[in-house]
Amino acid sequence: MQVKQEAVLSVPTPPMTERKVVPDRFKLGRKLGQGTFSVIFEAYDTQRKENVALKIEKKDKIKTILLFEYKVLSNLQNNEHICKVYDYVENTESKQNFISMELLGNNLDKVKRNHSDGKLPRGFATFILMQMLDAIEETHRSGFIHRDIKASNFVLGKNSSKVYLVDFGLAKKHLNKDGYPIPARKKADFRGTVSFASLNAHYC
Q1: Which of 60, 138, 141, 171 has the highest Cβ tally under 10 A?
Q2: What is the full DSSP assignment across 63-94?
Q3: pLDDT digits (tens, 9 = 90+) for 122-170
Q4: Residue 55 is assigned to a ligand binding site
Q5: Which of 45, 148, 167, 189 is labelled catalytic?
Q6: What Enzyme Commission number(s) does the record list for this chain (predicted)?
């Protein structure tokens, strides 16, 4: 079912600084979340005639991160648990670039917190967990490792029946063009979220 434009425009208007970044094609709506390098808004795409998720670079952040994420997502478009990515746009005036993507539902951290006891029903949790494992496995098979696995980076689809793995800004290619593992570096900086990373990651 198509969501009408008014559904987006009826929510609080984003700050002028954010509205200036994107072209008139997009009508910004509510803020969905933010990370170290970007902010995500719901927006109405007047060309596609549907609501999308718009990921906008923060000012003064590394300018290659969002482009890299767009390239990774483009490589993973055949995977079942990866959202559709539509456009990468460079804004030469504001120096803030953005990606437009398929609009999904809540992340699993929010879904869990929305339950009164903070727990998911056992059957639903098992159903979700199996899909999370599938999402990670298919990403690895496609030659990438995510490097920031946590509940907030898994998002439910609109009907809550499918799980998607999102936020590939820290991803790393681990297979070469022939499908063989790329040799590990002797020393690598920490990547990920401290409270969710494995113990080995803290000592690398």
Answers
A1: 171
A2: TTHHHHHHHHHHHTTTSTTS--EEEEE--TTT
A3: 999 999 999 999 999 999 999 999 999 999 999 999 888 899 999 999 9
A4: yes
A5: 148
A6: 2.7.11.1
